[in-house]
Amino acid sequence: MTAVVAGAPPLIRRVGGATTGAFVWGAANSGGLALLLWLAWIDHQAGPGHTGIATAVVNGTAILVGTAVGATIVARFPRNAVGWLVLASLSLFIASGAAELYARVALLGGRDWPGGGVAAAFDQSLWLLVFGLVGWLLLLYPTGRPPSGRVWPMVAGASAAAYPAAFLCGLFAAHPRLDPPLSAMPNPLAVDALTGYGAQLVNVVLILACLALLALSAASVVMRYRRSDGVQRAQLKWMLVAAVVPPITVLACLTAGVVSPAARDTAASYGFDTILVAVPLAAALAMTQYRLYAVDRFVDTALVYLTLTALLTVLYVAVVVATGSLAGNASGRSPEAVAVATLVAVGVATPLRKRVQLGVSRRFHRRRFDAVRIVEDYVRRLRDEQASLGDLESTLARAVGDRSLELGWWQPASGSYVGFSGRPVGEATGGRSRFEVRRGAEPLAVVWHAPGLDAEPHLLEDVTRAAALPLENGRLHLEVLARLDEVNASRQRIVATAYEERRRIERDLHDGAQQRLVSLALSMRLARDRLGGEYADVLETAADELTAAVRELRELARGIHPAALTEEGLAAALESLADRTPVHVVVDVPDQRLADDVAAAAYFTACEVVTNAVKHADAQCIRIDGTIADGALVIVIADDGVGGAVTREGGGLQGLADRLDALGGRLTVVSERGKGTTVRAEVPCER
Amino acid sequence: MLVVDDHAPFRALARQVLEGVAFRVVGEAATGFEGLAMTRELHPDVVILDVGLPDRNGFDLAGDLMRTTPPPAVLLVSSRDWGRVGRRVLDSGACGFLPKEELSTAAVEAMLA
Q: So what's the ipTM on this one?
């Protein structure tokens, strides 16, 4: 049974007396801590070189916090070994500390306490058991069981055997201790059988085995991280944050060592305390609140700054030593050297940080790194004009590995999202998640994606950040597209209005001047008939003049907008055109009602082309064929003239093409010299 | 004779021009609808019919007039250019087309002949 479950963990899960057990163990640790502090106080009174107050307080606080966290984990996940292991390792740490202090007081403090030698023997060996528990903790975190596979349970079993064996070997061996001044004391627990060289060899081998097992346990965390995903990965990342503390401690010690040995000891002590708190705290947070923070960012930042600190420290020390040597100061601590080193360190800090950030991203966030690389590569190609903005959606889809991904830009005018081509997107969003990209407070775009990507919120964030430029350009493109639509609509209105104007003028002429002239002509004839006599000739001439004027006006009106086109449609108007044309014209156009502007555009195009054929091409026969297909009227005017017509800027054909273009249509001219001219006009008639 | 035209001055002039020994104008109509109703009621021998009426096209209306009994002779008139009128006049059943400014008793008689 594992305490790690996807989703929200239960608030409190009490199993049997686990909570009581956690409480009792925690209390025992606290009691042990009290004993430890009391011993520290007695040792402190022995004078300089003994336990300092600050060290004791910091150690004590660390133990207290660690215990509280361990007890919380046990209470929450009683069947998970992790909490129990935290409590146990702290107990052993307390015991180890107590043994050391007791030995100091008994053997060096001048007090006549019994068993000082035994306590020293324990102090020198107990650390192995603390390491053993830490190794187990690494092996079992966070599920409480070793990772699957045959090797890891064996590592756990070997640890269970090797550490106690090494501990016992150390406890009963007679060889010199590690720490002075206690190393000078003889071991009262020494057993003869463990004093020979063979036994010493066994002891060394056991300790090496323990260290190897610890390394394997650490490796198991890395292996588990690689295999994991989702919740467990997030939990392991928390442990990675804690894992950053020991190397930082080592670095801090090294740097402090440049200043003084005392500073180094203080750094080491505080660093160790930080580990004591950080590891259980990270474990507890990971197991309960793994959704709380963006742990990725945390790990990232920690790793970046750790590496950066290490590199800068090495550089700093190297520059101090090198500058010192050059200046002839062997110790290498001249103020000039320090100043130079500081300047160098400051100078390289920023570029170095960028490099390290890249390296960390590449190593630890491969997927995000690769995704961002794909987008950055696309942006580069876009800049070199080797890619188009229209590929942005497919690039994002490829980067995050979601073929269903859809990209839409916010259109403030319509209050909706549209794709690059201007079509609306995101309508079929069933079961998909959306990720919004904002520019300041304004919505910029939205990405609809498969819900699987929700587990990686930073992926889309990073990818869209990398695509900031094309996203913005896409917005501008759509803005231009919208403007273009407006311009097209306005051109269309202008052309349609022009045709409408022609129609209105023709009607005004007909209703006004034409009618009046007709009336005048008739009246004049009437006057001639009624009055006659000597004025008959004058009146007849006037009537004839008026009749001629009416005819001329009729011609003019027809040129402006033929009545046949308005009243009877395109086919009738074209037939009338054929009648007026001095050469043979065949018209085959469907007799179908069309929108006024469509019919007018087709008619006036035909008029101009026929006029050109007669005037310039010397045509003898002209065909006008019309069809309506796929929502467009197509008029083809073909003549047998000399050909060689060209569309010239400002020319008649160009004007026709412009007007058709405004209505969404087009004009094509095929005119080979000697082979006649064919003009094809296409006008959409379903809008 | 019936004059169907939406322009009142023309109707009045037509009446003056045509009325005499040969013709007598029995009525005037301003729309196609009125023209048809009056034709049914008054049974004119001849209808002078404007092509561009506000409610109907004269070519279409001519057909309807021809179907009344007894069918009148229909003469289409217009001041506009209607292009290829010959075939359409034939199709409509009218006996001819005359530009308005050429209207006269002689012209009408020639058409009816």
A: 0.91
